[in-house]
Amino acid sequence: MSLLEVRDLRVSFPTADGVVRAVRGVSFSVDAGRTIGIVGESGSGKTVLTQTLLGLTPGGEVSGSAVFDGTDLIGLPEEQLRRIRGAQIAVIFQDPLTSLHPLYRVGWQIAEMVRAHDKSVSKAAAAERAVELLARVGIPQPRQRARDYPHQFSGGMRQRAMIAMALSLEPKMIIADEPTTALDATVQAQILDLLLRLQQDSGTALIMITHDLGVVADIADDVMVMYAGRAAEMAAKRDIFYQPHHPYTKGLLESIPNSSAGAGRLRPITGQPPSLINVPPGCAFHPRCAYVMDKCLTDEPGLIPVAQDAYHRSACWLPVTAAGLSEQAEEARRRTVGEGRHEAAAKIAEAIAESPEAEGSVIA
Amino acid sequence: MSVTELEFQAQSAAGPVQAIEGRSQWRLTWRRLLHDRMAIASGIVIVIVVGLALAAPLFARLTGHGPNQLFPNTGLSVNGIPVGPGHNFWLGTDEQGRDLFVRILYGARISLFVGVVTTAIATVAGVGIGLVAGYFGGWIDTVLARFIDAVLAFPYVVLALALAVVLGPSLPVVVGVIAFFSWAGISRIVRGQTLSIKEREYVESARSIGASPWRIMVIDILPNLLAPVLVLATLSIPTAIVFEATLSYLGLGIQPPTASWGNILAGAQNYYNVAWWYLIFPALALLITTLAFNLLGDGIRDAMDPRTERLFAADTARRRLRRSKPAKAGGAGTADVAGA
Amino acid sequence: MAFLTFLIRRLLLGIIVMWFVTVATFLLFFVAPQDPARLLAGKNPTPQTIAAINARLGLNQPLIVQYGHYVDRLVHGNLGTSFVNGSSVNTILKQDLPPTLSLLVGGVILWLIVGLGAGILSATRVRTLVDRTSTVGVLIGITFPTFVLGLLLQFAIFLPLNRSGFHWVQTGYEGPTTSIIGWAGHMILPWITIAAVSAATYTRLTRGSLLDTMGEDYIRTARSKGLTERRVLYRHAIRAALTPVVSQLGVDMGTLAGGAVVTEQVFGLGGIGQQSLTSITTGDTPVVLGIVLMAALFVVVANIVVDVLYSVLDPRVKLS
User: What distance in Å separates the CA atoms of residue B205 and residue B97, rounded to the nearest whole number?
Assistant: First the structure.
């Protein structure tokens, strides 16, 4: 039984300009001790998704279910949700400078967390524990640093402090929302290292939200790629990197410099993510997809299993044996980045028709 | 392993709200303003007040009472007490037997004149100085900014009194004094706005083409200032009106016998125990006028800045969500909606 | 150590500011078209009378000399003597201070309670009836001219109460040493009058500051820690939102200590404000100078206190 099982979660926000459908039916699960990486660009809904789990999204209309350790978080009364926050599920936010209270000492803030759910813990004991935690995340001279204010810490140290805070009650699951984005490269690596080590030590499940596939490669067991409020592809880490199916996933991989998939020039994905108020009909990615077919314009694909292993799923109408697309098809696709999409589809169809190896992969 | 970033062409999505057709800002503002009932009501009230003020001489003729005419026989009772509202004197009289209604109307002329003229002067001066300070920067800005701060920090009550006494109280002096203390607030805001607008690209490009600074200030920056300046100006009018009324009340503004709401109320202070109308009606006139301008200014400001609306919509929805059961499924597709 | 240098530097600056103030005021009054001698001389003064008065007051000496005398006296703590009635300015100010301070203390407490309370209530219940009511209240409070409010309060409360034999509420001033209850009765209406405008401003300020704070990331973190909403509000949000309010309070108190002219005039309290009005109108320069100097002193001290307080409240701020 999974620790967290999310089914068809939908979140929308009424705004003056219309209803923003930030999350449009996402399902996934997380097992105890495992790490899932949720990858997507800004606006894909990844942050809203996780914050909704803890009821941290004001004004949203939520439907679906998210069963955590036997309890559905969606619709849970505030008081019960509050007891889960921090104690069972902890969050690490993106920008530790703005996420820590500027007017209270770091040690005090961590101690507050310790006492939040158990008032019987004395202030002294909580303070002591705070120092312990700071040491555990690798902050030198933790006793002195506990008396410092957040602005006196460096960026990396602040994030370590936030991690310390998240670990303080030994939660079953941690949600890390782009924890390394605000940090520079060397510090990023250190923080990820720390997270990995701590997670293995305590067996906490981890949801790692990021737009950086490199982070995912480091730390995740499973990956969910999100686009426009839905899951585009879900697979074990290896499959995402070596057998990506969804064109968006492939595009992400190709736009990484230095990766083998992106050999030669950087190939960014043309176009922009759609407005979540007026989501285009059919597949949300179709305006930017080089493989677009007629069906994509009208029918929105659900997650369809890709390989024999039913875990690897992709929300795409492209046939499973897309792995068998010929060289010519690939070439045609490369050439057509920038050209009209229907022309691209036509060329691909041509190329496939001329190529006997492509038999079996039909593009309608 | 090296950590790499994803590169996307064009700007990343600005957020979930996109692809809204661009509508003219002014038309949007106007439309929102028209939906604001308070603002409309205030606008109507202001129009009425202005109308009454303009029509003051007409009313004087109508009632047969000039604003400074004494009517000791019909206007005062046998004991010399002012007469209450009635046929002859619609809102009663003051202690000298003058028609209160007519005096209030003439007082409106003073108030509106002072309000509008001082605001106009303060706005022109404030925008001018703020624009120059913000645009040129450097030592010009430092000097001007310090000057603005000094004017704003000064205990203006004492200085206003002193100036009024030293220069002798009169209408031009009142206008000058009030304008002197009003321009700084506008200037500070204009300067701030100019500083941020200056950094925008089209200003940079205009400068690189070699457009003259004056041209840039007027054509590129000024139009963007119109919105906040309009709000400021509308809200400065009632401040000026109250300032004049206060000065006149203290005896340092418009001098009797010329009617000003302030000096009428000064007289009312000694007679309100026997002549309630003497206090209530001028007070009402002052209150209604200033309230109307304040509401209108607030309305314009709200119409220009709908962001606050969204914040409130979210908060209202959140409270609704907390109080009720889980929301019904939105959009296609059902799911097990667990919970009570 | 840094604190001492800060303090010394600010005090020195303050003294320079006050010096400027004396010069400015001095000049203002001596270039005024009004002639204090003529004002004092009464009706139809003879030239001899005027000359005599001028000599007595020392007004026939060159300006620099007069200023020199003034500074000399000032350094010895003597603010001079009134032109009008010859009493020592020090004495006059000492008499006038209690009403003003009474007004200040009571007013501040009242407007803080109302302003903070209404501001917090509105911010936590946005767009509900409570919030809308307070918004209307704020608008009225800001719009209401102080003197009109004072007059209306007298009319609506003082008059009817006195008429029906209830004499607790009175105009004028009675010190707390005479009778606390009497003192309160004299001060209650002035307190409401002076607090009204500020209560409105502080409500708006608190509400805005709190709303801004509630949108900050660290509030979201606090919630994610599982803290009760109450604790998030009081310990995290309000604590952060109060800093601008506190600094505003310091400034307001400093300004008000220089005298609330209008309120004192309306209620006949006889404080510094009312005194300044009288003295300015009668051209009683020494008294005016004394009041202006004292007001400037209060403002300088208040500014220093506010800066120190701010650095205490917000550890990110360093005293420079």
Answer: 68
What is the rounded distance in angstroms from the CA atom of residue B189 to the CA atom of residue A334?
53
DSSP letters for B238-302? HHHHHHHHHHHHTTSSSPTTS--HHHHHHHHTTTTTT-HHHHHHHHHHHHHHHHHHHHHHHHHHH
Question: Quick one: tokens of B338?
Answer: 């667990």
**Using an 8 Å Cβ cutoff, are A324 and A357 in contact?**
yes
Question: Where do the domains of chain C lie, and which CATH numbers do they carry?
Answer: 93-273 (1.10.3720.10)
What would be the CATH architecture of the domain defined by B24-323?
A: Orthogonal Bundle (1.10)
Please report all neighbours of B, defined by 3+ CB atom pairs within 8 A: A, C
Q: Which of B138, B239, B141 is nearest to B185 (CA)?
A: B239
For residue range B11-33, what is the model confidence (pLDDT) as tens digits?
223 322 222 333 466 777 777 77
Bridge partners, A71 (sequence order): A68
Q: Name the residue among C142, C273, C280 with its Cβ closest to that of B165.
A: C280
Smallest Cα distance from B193 to chain A, Å:
25
Q: In chain B, positions 288-307, which contact chain C (CB-CB < 8 Å)?
A: 290-291, 294-295, 298
What average pLDDT does this structure show over C107-124?
92
pLDDT in tens, A70-101: 899 988 898 999 999 989 999 999 888 899 99
Reduced to 3 states, what is the DSSP secondary structure of residue A339? Answer: strand
pLDDT over 70 at B324, yes or no: no
Closest CA relative to residue C299, chosen from B187, B188, B150, B144:
B150
Other residues' Cβ atoms within 10 Å of the Cβ of residue B236? 28
Instruction: Note whether C314 contacts A113, CB cutoff 8 Å.
Output: no
Distance CA C298, CA C260 (A): 13
pTM: 0.76
CB environment C71-89: b (16+ within 10 A), e (fewer): eeebeeeebbbbbbeeeeb
Q: Which of C82, C49, C95 minimizes the C-alpha distance to C283?
A: C82
Residue A174: its H or E element: strand A173-177
Structure tokens at A40: 């997507």
Q: Give the mean pLDDT of chain C.
A: 83
Pairwise CB contact (< 8 Å): B331 & A257: no
Which segments in chain A show pLDDT lower than 70? 256-268, 309, 320-364
CA distance A178 to A92: 8
**Cβ contact C240:C222 at 8 Å:** no
Asked if B316 is an interface residue toward chain C (Cβ–Cβ < 8 A), one would say yes
Are the CB atoms for B84 and B77 separated by under 8 Å?
no
**Residue spans per domain, chain B:** 24-323
Tell me the pLDDT tens digit for each residue of B273-289.
888 889 999 999 999 99
Q: What is the pLDDT of residues A27-57, one digit of tens each?
A: 999 998 899 999 988 878 888 888 899 988 8
CA distances from A172 to A47, A168, A236, B82, C195 (A): 20, 11, 21, 83, 53
Please give the Cα distance from B197 to B191 (Å, whole number). Answer: 10
